[in-house]
């Protein structure tokens, strides 16, 4: 008929986390109750793809008890955001400019452009093992478009399948 909030208390019992909810007394014989529970569980990053709750209904007045298990899929959700910037934002080569063959000076090979990419986790879950694939066009029409000098990362990230960096040792 009516709705009541349950008084529930978490505790540890035999190495398991237990939540004990008192439904109250006295109950009439043959009474039917329906209980809805909302649980917030943290630290599930390494739990796999499901977590199982073991539910037990016990009565002090009856020697029998009812047991059931509920398996709930675990789904991590995280919103990733990629931000990028080029310094300078716009680069225009003069029409009369030509690179100097054999030179080891970077300025003889073009204008320095730095590309910075930031990958942000906006949550709500933590992220591990994320992959970012970045394709950089280095050639256009058989000619050098971008000459990659160096690649750096911050924040414990690793790079794999690196392109040829500074092949002419400029």
From TrEMBL:
GO cellular component: external side of plasma membrane; integrin complex
GO molecular function: integrin binding
UniProt GO BP: angiogenesis; cell adhesion mediated by integrin; cell-cell adhesion; cell-matrix adhesion; integrin-mediated signaling pathway
Membrane topology value: Single-pass type I membrane protein
InterPro entries for the chain: Integrin_alpha_Ig-like_2, Integrin_alpha_Ig-like_3, Integrin_dom_sf
Chief location: membrane
Keywords: Glycoprotein, Integrin, Membrane
Gene3D superfamilies in alphabetical order: ntegrin, alpha v. Chain A, domain 3 (2.60.40.1510), ntegrin, alpha v. Chain A, domain 4 (2.60.40.1530)
All residue ranges annotated as the Integrin alpha third immunoglobulin-like domain in the record: 81-168
Subcellular location: Membrane
Residue ranges of every copy of the Integrin alpha second immunoglobulin-like domain listed in the record: 3-74
SUPFAM superfamilies: Integrin domains (SSF69179)
Domain of life of the source: Eukaryota
Name assigned to this protein: ITA2B protein
Organism taxonomic ancestry: Eukaryota, Metazoa, Chordata, Craniata, Vertebrata
